[in-house]
Amino acid sequence: xxxxxxxxxxxxxxxxxxxxxxxxxxxxxxxxxxxxxxxxxxxxxxxxxxxxxxxxxxxxxxxxxxxxxxxxxxxxxxxxxxxxxxxxxxxxxxxxxxxxxxxxxxxxxxxxxxxxxxxxxxxxxxxxxxxxxxxxxxxxxxxxxxxxxxxxxxxxxxxxxxxxxxxxxxxxxxxxxxxxxxxxxxxxxxxxxxxxxxxxxxxxxxxxxxxxxxxxxxxxxxxxxxxxxxxxxxxxxxxxxxxxxxxxxxxxxxxxxxxxxxxxxxxxxxxxxxxxxxxxxxxxxxxxxxxxxxxxxxxxxxxxxxxxxxxxxxxxxxxxxxxxxxxxxxxx
Length: 332
Description:
Helix content is about 65%, strand content about 0%. It has helices at about 20-45, 65-85, 100-125, 125-135, 135-145, 155-170, 185-205, 210-230, 235-240, 245-270, 275-280, 285-295, 300-320.
């Protein structure tokens, strides 16, 4: 209940669980984000001569990406809240002093990640938006080594460099035509990287105080509140959800690209360092590229294949043993 003492750290004690669990959870998050992104593209792409040739033609629903982001946050929050009320009511108990942190986490780490990502897409394109957002591991690495006492070894910067380079190749940054971006688009893209890094770093801090269920539910609640304010009310969301197809599509995306990945990533932060989780999350464009090749008939170039190999190499390098892990200081 509000005002009660916060729960003790819920993550495993150092050495209690193998860190492989954290990598698997971070990989599940990346796969879910990739699946959700592809599902959104499939659900909301118009039906035309090009898309009708896909192995699975799209439904042709028309929804503004920002409205979709708001709707999935609201639906995901409602789903989690109902589940916790019925099955895990204790997970809703927090200290009032943690509300400001959870509010910042929800707005910065959830709502603004999506908002800046879609703004970047509108000014640049999907490939550029993905590339800029996945500069986040660099920010996480610098912050974690400087302030969270992660050990500085050659494997960490090496893994970060490989993962960012792999993402750049995967999204075609060095392919024909390369990537061109305006100053404003660059600013929004870098903002999305900062906010995604903020989600990772704040999630690592939160993992020492509450379960991933608690953090994600309150975070989504504040994210939903942000979207209600931004959209000047929930009316547009209710209109979208009143359509059975819209409700089904949003519910699917809320589960697959919101509840599962954000929850799995938060849980992963209880097992591995923030930088390693951030590097592992760069599997998303790799998985998305392979799935798009298989499901949507898109072509994978040799450079994209090389990019995927670099990302896998980065994750392997991040797992190289470096001695005892440094634990986060207890939350003040």
